[in-house]
Amino acid sequence: MMNHIYQKFLEEAEKKSFDPEHRKRLNYNIGRYDEQVEKGKDQYQNLELAKRRAANIKHKTINNLDKYLVEFENNFSKRGGKVIWAPTEKDAQREVMHIIKAAKAQVIVKQKTMVSEEVELNEMFEKNKREVFETDLGEYIVQLAGEKPYHILTPAMHKSKEDVAKLFHEKFNLPADSKPQQITQFVREKLRGEFVRADVGITGGNFLIADVGAVSLTENEGNGLLCMAFPKIHIVIVGIEKLIPSIEDLDLFLPLLAQHGTGQHITVYNNLVFGPQSEFEPDGPEEMYVILLDNRRTELLKFREQRRALSCIRCGACLNGCPIYKSIGGYTYKATYSGPIGSVISPHYLGMKEYNHLSFASSLCGKCTEVCPIKIPLHELLLQNRHEAVSKKYVSFTWRGIVYGWKMLMLHRWMIDKPSPGLKNKMINRFGRKMWGPRRTLPKIASKSFKDRWKETHP
């Protein structure tokens, strides 16, 4: 029987795929991204070599994750930072709330971080009557709208500038025809006050650097730096897979992330944080915590092939290249991580039985693998997930029967040749109409097969 999550996915996919306004917005925004990415490639003499080097480093790191995690913890702790291990989502929430209650903090500012979405920090803060402000412009927009990020890198990709102007008119009484520049200036002035008021700043981490015990943060708006500099407490919440071995590796990873993420040669702000404020520094937090989140990542590590997905640096390139994502959008996945990378990791994070359908929602065209800066073979990993779902019988009996029947047909040519063309067409109409969908015309079998015509022309 079809589970509720899968049924909802099919309904949402049907709705979004045939929404012309939705497709128009995504095609426009992703089209601009594609233009910039092509320009960003100009900095490389040999992009393929850079990608291979990055893939090798991440592969080595993931396969020795225990060693590098301990090395990072030791080096970070030497400078007064505190590392907290969070095996689950609930553990991460509890640890964050413990820090906030101990500090009697009421106002929290946050840099964009997908891990905080994964563990639903904002919902927890609201439940505990704390004020929380997203400080990335895109994240702030979706927070005001009461929504989740639509895209790993571009949270408000689904909104037009008219939508945003309408939202700010409703929330802050700005003119309904406000230009993007006016809205940006308004948000800048508003959030500056919140940075000053904030007791705690929360950020993610693009990379954790093992040999120096530092957190690398890369951004374009400067809000991440303010989240670290103004509040007395800085909390970094990050997945355990974000490690790289050495600070020297940044000269490879930072340009790759910028080029594949936004088409820039390098992101505007690239910060290295080694711990809380020292006695020789004029600003910075008095306390700094790094919460290392597992949340089933070690379960994914058990799979020899799928573990390669943990190399992801969250650039979003696979989403922008994916024809499925461009058709159904981000919310249809009903998961924090959408697109090809989400379709690989979400079934492992959220439950293969309930979410295996995401791995089947792919054309297997290979575009995601082609554009990945870390050379993760995403379309192959989707097949690995499918194999696991079928072998554990998470796929319906009916679907397994259909695939088995198709396999028998393909292995026995006489089964295809024996029925007449008329009977074949009747069978296609009888069994294929619902699966083929109401908007497509069913194919018709010709009166003569290619094999028959070949025999006539080549006796």
The poorly predicted ranges are none
Rg (CA only): 25 Å
Distance between the terminal alpha carbons, to the nearest Å?
51 Å
What is the molecular shape?
Answer: globular
CATH H-tier superfamily of the largest domain: NagB/RpiA/CoA transferase-like
Largest sheet: 6 strands, parallel
What would the CATH topology of the largest domain be? Rossmann fold
Task: Please provide the count of β strands.
Answer: 10
Count of discrete alpha- or pi-helical segments spanning 4 or more residues: 24
Q: What does the average pLDDT come to?
A: 94
Number of domains: 3
Topology:
Blueprint: H1 4-17, H2 20-40, H3 47-63, H4 65-77, E1 82-86, H5 89-102, E2 107-110, H6 114-118, H7 121-127, E3 131-134, H8 137-144, H9 161-172, H10 180-197, E4 200-203, E5 207-209, E6 214-219, H11 223-229, E7 233-239, E8 243-244, H12 250-261, E9 269-273, E10 287-293, H13 297-301, H14 317-321, H15 323-328, H16 339-350, H17 352-355, H18 357-360, H19 367-371, H20 378-391, H21 397-411, H22 413-417, H23 421-436, H24 450-457
Parallel strand pairs: 1-10, 2-3, 2-4, 4-7, 5-8, 7-10
Antiparallel strand pairs: 5-6, 6-9
Helix pairs in contact: 2-12, 16-20
Task: Give a verbal description of the structure.
The chain has 24 helices and 10 strands. The chain is of the alpha/beta class. The protein folds into 3 domains: 92 residues, Alpha-helical ferredoxin (Fumarate Reductase Iron-sulfur Protein, Chain B, domain 2, Orthogonal Bundle), CATH 1.10.1060.10; 252 residues, Rossmann fold (3-Layer(aba) Sandwich), CATH 3.40.50; 58 residues, no CATH class. A 6-stranded parallel sheet has the order 1-10-7-4-2-3, with helices on both faces. A 4-stranded mixed sheet has the order 8-5-6-9. Strand 5 and strand 6 form a beta hairpin. It starts with a helix and ends with a helix.
